[in-house]
Write a structure and sequence with these properties.
With 265 residues, the protein is of the alpha+beta class. The chain is built from seven helices and 13 strands. The strands form two sheets. Strands 2, 3, 4, 5, 6, 9 and 10 form a seven-stranded antiparallel beta sheet that branches. The protein has a six-stranded antiparallel beta sheet with strand order 1-12-11-7-8-13. A hairpin with a 2-residue loop joins strand 5 and strand 6. Helix 1 packs antiparallel against helix 2.
Length: 265
């Protein structure tokens, strides 16, 4: 995982966290844990919100017991409460919040918890799928047929977030109740909108196809910087199993999940 302030902003309000299988310091390991949070709010409040989210969720994730969906919901609820309380107690932090996208993979099953417009993708057999849904005004307008995806990409309202952690007493994250069975050769990408606002899905797909995880992560960061680096940029690339050859491994017969997944052709 990499995070970069970009070429325009003075401070980095993004936070990335990850724990690889077997590396948990306490509470036992649940497998891969990865998180991207993109904070918002003036006077460094965005940095406070994203760091509070990351610290709270990581700590609770390895302390709590139970099915992954229940644990993830409890983690995000705790983070929302911590951020909201801080914003109420400190006038300089009023209105702060953060996006948050959390991926966990354990026992060959992936679970996602997500709120805001950071994103999670899956590259499977050479095809790229966006497995999170943007909680933004323009994304909702696209889903409702009011705006095209092309119009949304250039809309002045594309930064309007409809859901976030910490902005309300209760948050409404999307949490997978049913896990996704992973396959050898799957590649997961977590990122903030500092990447996706500047680098198109085709470039993301081709980069993940051609490069191993650490190189792909750096190449995507470089592409966002070359495109202007107008926001903080955070990226995490996680590959399941062995190194891919020429972009992907042959698939197996296990079914795709019931979650809505949009392929980038």
């Amino acid at each position: 995982m990499l995070t970069h302030v970009g070429l325009v902003r003075e401070a980095n309000e993004d936070v990335v966290e990850y724990v690889l299988p077997g590396a948990a310091a306490n509470g036992g390991c649940r497998g891969l844990f990865a998180l991207v949070a993109d904070g918002m709010g003036g006077h460094a409040a965005g940095e406070i919100a994203s760091r509070l989210a990351a610290d709270t969720i990581r700590q609770r994730f390895f302390e709590l017991e139970g099915p992954p969906p229940e644990v993830l919901r409890a983690c995000l609820d705790a983070a929302n409460g911590a951020i909201y309380a801080s914003s109420r107690n400190e006038p300089a932090y009023a209105g702060m919040g953060t996006t948050c996208t959390v991926l966990t993979v354990c026992d060959e099953t992936a679970f996602l918890a997500h709120i805001g417009d950071s994103r999670a993708y899956l590259l499977r057999e050479g095809l790229l799928y966006q497995i999170s849904h943007d909680h933004s005004l323009v994304a909702e307008m696209v889903r409702d047929g009011i705006m095209t995806a092309e119009e949304a990409a250039f809309s002045p309202e594309r930064s309007v977030i409809l859901r976030a952690l910490g902005t309300e007493p209760r948050a409404e994250p999307e949490i997978w109740s049913e896990g996704l069975l992973v396959r050898e050769g799957d590649v997961f990408l977590l990122c903030s909108d500092g990447l996706t606002d500047l680098v198109d899905d085709k470039t993301i797909r081709d980069t993940l196809r051609m490069l191993i995880a650490c190189d792909a992560c750096q190449a995507l960061l470089d592409a966002a910087l070359v495109a202007g680096g107008t926001d903080n940029i955070s990226i995490g690339v996680f590959e399941i199993g062995v190194r891919r050859v020429e972009g992907f491994l042959p698939g197996d017969t296990r079914p795709m999940p019931r979650h809505r997944i949009e392929s980038v052709e």
